[in-house]
Design brief:
The chain is mainly α and about 110 residues long. Helices cover about 65% and strands about 0% of the residues. It comes from Pseudomonas indica.
């Protein structure tokens, strides 16, 4: 009888896979690469890409490594996990709110030191 991978996986390991999948998805999105493009580059199906990004425990490690190589060529899994992705950091910085209007004369005088 076939067992489901998710049911055999402890919760703390499942959450680690979900975090890895989200980090890979963030890296892909920051580089403006579609799931279909990653699938072609990594020579896997788009469904597998979706499963990797969701943290599916049934995905082979080799497929995850091919995904990583398609999105960030030359970066090892260890480096990916230990160093922040500059593209993701930049994407998050651009997403922060900025003033919607410039300061007026009265406000400029108030902040003039």
């Amino acid at each position: 009888m076939k067992r489901q991978q998710a049911s055999a996986m402890p919760d703390h390991l499942s959450s680690q896979l979900a975090e890895l999948g989200q980090a890979l998805a963030d890296s892909r999105i920051a580089r403006k690469i579609t799931q279909a493009e990653v699938a072609v580059r990594a020579n896997v199906s788009r469904n597998t890409i979706v499963r990797i990004e969701r943290g599916d425990a049934g995905v082979a490690v080799g497929q995850i490594l091919r995904y990583l190589d398609a999105v960030r060529p030359g970066v090892s899994l260890q480096a990916f996990l230990s160093q922040p992705d500059t593209a993701v950091v930049q994407m998050e910085a651009q997403g922060k709110r900025q003033r919607s209007r410039p300061l007026g004369e009265k406000e400029l005088k108030r902040y003039d030191f």
